Amino acid sequence: MKAYYIRVEGGRTVLEAREVAQPVAGPGQVLVKVRAASLNRGEFIVGGLTKPGEAKPAGNEAAGEVVGTGQRVMGRCAGAYAEYAVMDAREAIPLPDHLSYEQGAAIPLTFMVVHDMLVEQGRLKAGEWLLVGGIASGVGVAALQVAKALGAKVIGTSGSDQKLSRLRELGLDVAVCTRKPDFAGKVLEATGGKGANLAINTVGGSVFAEMVRSLAFEGRLAIVGYVDKQLHGEFDLETVHVNRLKIFGVSNKKRTADMRAATVKGFVADLLPLFASRRITPLVDRVFPFDRMAQAQAYMESDAHAGKIVVKL
């Protein structure tokens, strides 16, 4: 079968097409005929999910049909950029009938990250304010959609007025057009001087201090990405101390398979009904043919998209 592998070359990640043997499902696994898979920025950042060394199967989430039963599923899986992939059976989530495979591929990883940030750890409540730095990313858009479904109000930053205008149609309450750490004043203004109850940092160290300055009393800050490649930022101990702030990370790197399966249960219970009832529809920016994976990667790296980029088999 055809599959893509990813490796580091010349300081950047490179995809290469290979002909490999079709995988075999082991105990507790299902074999999925992949119909669509989506791109995730973290995989294409050197030192993020991909490190120098031997090439490895690429892709982390897909939608397709379980071989042998034909059930439509979506889920996280290693080696998603392939004609067939193996999923932990606990990760295979039923795909609602009205959603396409392309839409299904845009859901699992991103929205389970959002469930972790907003529900499990962030405890976002109706009426609270959510701040999302880099809101046009896949995680940012998903956070906006889930927050609005939960009854929260959302402030988002982006360097593109065009992207922000598109996200206003999804319910974005306050749009801040900037790529700089200069948004705390506007957050305080929008929230009547109180600040955001929960903030999501998808950008990295360059905006960390500004995120802290944007938080309300007993605010929470989620660290989920660092597309600016800055892993360090100014830390204001006094502000964290006086305002009783909570700062937490959102990552699956050290989670066991059982821990990840528990996350799936939470997603299925809390968020899957929102997709089934059509209250949330994932925002797919663009779909590429499977044999144009390099173009899909280039499009993602151009930062021209809002939402998810998907490849279709």
How does this model look, in words?
The protein has ten helices and 16 strands. It is an alpha/beta fold and 313 residues long. It folds into two domains: 2-107 and 282-312, Quinone Oxidoreductase, Chain A, domain 1, CATH 3.90.180.10; 111-249, Medium-chain alcohol dehydrogenases, catalytic domain (Quinone Oxidoreductase, Chain A, domain 1). α2 packs across α3 and α2 (108-121) crosses α8. The model has no long low-confidence stretch (mean pLDDT 95).
Q: Largest sheet, if any?
A: 7 strands, mixed
Radius of gyration: 19 Å
Total tally of structural domains: 2
Average pLDDT metric: 95
Share of residues in strands = 25-35%
- Please state the overall shape, judged from the principal axes of the Cα atoms: globular
Q: For the terminal residues, how far apart are their CA atoms?
A: 12 Å
Total beta-strand segments: 16
CATH H level of the largest domain: which superfamily?
Medium-chain alcohol dehydrogenases, catalytic domain
Helix content: 25-40%
Features:
2 domains, Quinone Oxidoreductase, Chain A, domain 1, six-stranded parallel β-sheet, globular, alpha/beta, 313 residues
Topology:
Elements: E1 2-9, E2 12-19, E3 29-38, E4 56-57, E5 61-66, E6 72-76, E7 84-88, E8 93-94, H1 101-105, H2 108-121, E9 129-133, H3 138-149, E10 153-158, H4 161-168, E11 174-177, H5 184-190, E12 196-201, H6 208-213, E13 215-223, H7 237-242, E14 246-249, H8 257-270, H9 272-276, E15 284-289, H10 293-301, E16 308-312
Parallel strand pairs: 9-10, 9-12, 10-11, 12-13, 13-14, 15-16
Antiparallel strand pairs: 1-2, 1-4, 3-5, 3-7, 3-16, 5-6, 6-8
